[in-house]
Amino acid sequence: MSRSQRRSLAATKRSRTTLEEALKRIEKLEKENAELKEANEDLKEELEYFKKRKACGRQRHNAKWMAIYNNFFICHEQGMTMVEIAKRNGISERSIYRYKAYYDEVQKKKKGKS
After folding, report:
1. What is the mean pLDDT of residues 64-79?
2. In which domain, by residue range, is 46 found?
3. Residue 32: per-residue pLDDT
4. How many CA atoms lie within 13 A of 101 on its CB side?
5. Would 14 be classed as within a structural domain?
6. Which residues contact 3 (CB under 8 A, 6 or more apart)?
7. pTM for the whole thing?
């Protein structure tokens, strides 16, 4: 075997080794990528959970809140006391005073527009 053939053979072995190493590296990176995708999906689910979670104990102005507020409005206009309204709706007096504060705010806005 000539010198140039030996060099060529050695270069071929090196390139095979390099190619095999590259393929192993690609396989390893693909596994890491799959693991990262799984972790990303888990984090997305966790983010959705926190987005949907209530920020505090009080309810937002949803349908239930509006139903109680409308009942409060009617009772308040009829002259019922706050304690009577609270007992009638089955909620605390503090909550009724929150409804009253909201009612007063709405009334101010209505008067300001007139």
Report:
1. 91
2. 1-53
3. 94
4. 6
5. yes
6. none
7. 0.47
83: its two tokens: 């304690």
Cα 72 to chain centroid distance, Å, stands at 33
Does residue 58 sit within a domain?
no
Over 80: is that where the pLDDT of 105 sits?
A: yes
Angle at 82 between CA 78 and CA 87, to 5 degrees: 100
Instruction: Note whether 49 and 92 are same-domain residues.
Output: no
Distance CA 28, CA 22 (A): 10
Q: What is the pLDDT of residues 28-71, one digit of tens each?
A: 999 999 999 998 998 888 888 877 776 666 556 788 888 999 99
Measured distance CA(84)–CA(1) in Å, rounded: 109
By the 10 Å C-beta count (0-12 exposed, 13-18 middle, 19+ buried), 13 is classed as exposed
Measured CA angle at 57 (ends 55, 60), to 5 deg: 70
Query: CB–CB of 67/91 below 8 Å?
Result: no
Residue 8 lies in a domain: yes
